[in-house]
Amino acid sequence: MQKRNKKILAIIGSATPNSSNQKFVEKIIEKVDHFDITMYNSLSELPHFNTELTEHNVPEKIKNIRELIEHSDGILFSTPEYIFSIPSGLKNLLEWCVSTMIFTNKPISVLTASSSGIKGHEELHLILETLGAIIRPENSILIKGIKGKFDQYGNIDKELLQHVLSIMNNFNKTIEDFRHSS
Question: Averaged over 92-110, what is the pLDDT?
Fold first, then answer.
């Protein structure tokens, strides 16, 4: 019996089209063959969080993203840091998910690529842990000075790319370990 690829939802936290974070995920999609990756780059289209709509009369776009998360084997977040925090669109998504259990026991990988990124990386980890996600240090990376990691042709620094691909292998193992333990 052939093993199926793991379904990964890659959520791009950047508000900028064609961001460095999106480019990293595109390179991961190109290089990693054990994942079927769906890229979600539409956080700006989600309605503003409204506590009165989290369980009843949930907006259609929120239902759709919740289903994508629920039916994925793991989630890859690729995000910058904006003013020492995660981007507002990403925070909005996470707020829409607080009243659910969709992140509970969900394997997560975090790629924070920004000029600094320290506080945003820490904040995203804290939020995901609070939501019950499986988030391990070996599945995450903080990439400081992201703009300097691409050459003039848009190619990612080879050593960094190899490190990110190693993290994706770790993430694959985490998902497999979780499948066998549940």
Answer: 97
The three-state (H, E, C) secondary structure of the chain, written as one string: CCCCCEEEEEEECCCCCCCHHHHHHHHHHHHCCCEEEEEECCHHHCCCCCHHHCCCCCCHHHHHHHHHHHCCCEEEEEECCECCECCHHHHHHHHHHCCCCCCCCCEEEEEEEECCCHHHHHHHHHHHHHCCCEEEEEEEEEEECHHHHECCCCCECHHHHHHHHHHHHHHHHHHHHHHHHC
* 8 A C-beta contact, residue 110 and residue 135: yes
Please report, as a single letter, which amino acid is at residue 23. Answer: K
Res. 1: pLDDT tops 70: no
Residue 78, domain member (yes or no): yes
State how far the Cα of 154 lies from the Cα of 141, in Å rounded to an integer. 20
Q: What is the pTM of this model?
A: 0.95
| Per-residue confidence (pLDDT) for residue 182, from 0 to 100 | 66
- 56 lies in which domain range? 6-181
Query: Hey, what are 143's tokens?
Result: 């990439």
The total domain count for the chain is 1
For the residues 60-89, what does the mean pLDDT come to? 97
